[in-house]
Amino acid sequence: MQCELCGIDAAFLKRVIIEKVELQVCPKCVNLGVPATSEAKRNAGITGSVQEGLEKRAVRMQRKDIYDEMSGTKELLPGWGEKLKKARESKGFTWEDIASRVGQPVHAVAKYEKEELRPSDSVIAKLEKELDLELLETVGVIHSTGGGGPKGLTLGDLLKEAMRKK
Prior knowledge:
- This protein has helices at 38-44, 50-61, 80-90, 95-102, 106-113, 121-131, 155-165; strands at residues 14-18, 21-25, 34-35, 73-76, 136-139.
- The chain is an alpha+beta fold.
- A three-stranded antiparallel sheet has the order 2-1-3, covered by helices on one side.
């Protein structure tokens, strides 16, 4: 193991407090601090060792793949505005009727049908319930079988894959 003060490799390290910091040090550096007893830690205001702090920092600094969290997200179906309009008309509702039922202004409902405005997820849920339709679909992660190269997956790779499927 390595002394946290001088850096030499030592078979045995001892915990000491130096300048309000708890360190694992070699026998040569032990006399530069006081033994790290619970009382000495309390007096110095220490809650953890340097090593514990470094381990916590390493966990915090790990890169997270944002695409892992995207699996199974829901997106609006293509042509959702037209589907909304057809469902409203088939139930015999006006814009005003739907607006009052979902708690939105009339002009917002009109813009939803024209896809000029995207409703919030809570409004989508209300619209789906009132009109008995589904406006959302679950979107999965795209797995590419090739391409990408050293720079990763490109838009061209996705287009080639889509063309191959047709």
